[in-house]
Design a protein that fits this description.
heterodimer; A: 127 residues; mainly beta; seven-stranded mixed β-sheet; four-stranded antiparallel β-sheet; globular; B: 107 residues
């Protein structure tokens, strides 16, 4: 059974870099069948997709965060990570990592639902 | 960006009643998949429905999804106490987006 677990500092100072890691157990992040994604939820609000990475190492980011965001992976550790620079109070949220299914042919990729989620990591941006 | 609009924002119902709510896309999803998630307070979202109408593993058959193109519906035939939660739709394209959620509360 695949499980995901977020880890990282719960408190980040304004203008600094938010760094989170998602550790995957029970499955390989190198699998062609999945993409690995980050989603966040501001207090009392809905879900916001942040970005994802998939097997080839390709990444896609939410355009509203693109200039500050980096998602990477460490296949040897079976982890993927999020870095968000120059944070402000508006980045205070619960951050989730999740797995989604993907199918790629020569022409394009098809993305499917996120079926496994981590429990979430609360990150507060405050001095 | 495809915008998903869920309605109503809140649904007040009693256990045993039928719940039905909508997710409308700003443009046809075409080949993109639509999913529904349930979220309870303090918990991560849980996948209920994928590909608009297929139930995820372990999801009771009182949950059903329908629709295509721009209009999608999630129906819960008989509300159980554990079904009172927030429900989100999500389009699973290359740049995914979520609806703003529908809260199902106890009347």
């Amino acid at each position: 059974q695949v499980q995901l677990q977020e880890s990282g500092p719960g408190l980040v100072k304004p203008s600094e870099t938010l760094s989170l890691t998602c550790t995957v157990s029970g499955g390989s992040i190198s699998s062609d069948a999945y993409y690995w994604t980050w989603i966040r939820q501001h207090p009392g609000k809905g879900l916001e997709w942040i970005g994802y990475i998939y097997n080839s190492g390709s990444t896609y980011y939410n355009s509203s965060l693109n200039s500050r965001l980096s998602i990477s992976r460490d296949t040897s550790a079976n982890q993927f990570s999020l870095k968000l620079t120059s944070v402000t109070a508006a980045d205070t949220a619960v951050y989730y990592c999740a797995r989604g299914s993907i199918y790629c042919n020569r022409l394009t990729c098809y993305y499917y639902a996120m079926d496994v989620w981590g429990r979430g990591a609360t990150v507060t941006v405050s001095s | 960006e495809i915008v998903l609009t869920q309605s109503p924002g809140t649904l007040s119902l009693s256990p045993g009643e039928r719940a039905s709510f909508s997710c409308r896309a700003s443009q046809s999803l075409g080949t993109s998949s639509l999913a529904w998630y349930q979220q309870k307070p303090g918990q991560a979202p849980r996948l209920l429905i994928y590909d608009a109408s297929s139930r995820a593993t372990g999801i009771p058959d009182r949950f059903s999804g329908s629709g295509s193109g721009t209009d999608f519906t999630l129906t819960i035939t008989r509300l159980e106490p554990e079904d009172f939660a927030v429900y989100y739709c999500q389009q699973c394209g290359i740049l995914p987006t979520f609806g703003q959620g529908t809260r199902v509360e106890i009347k």
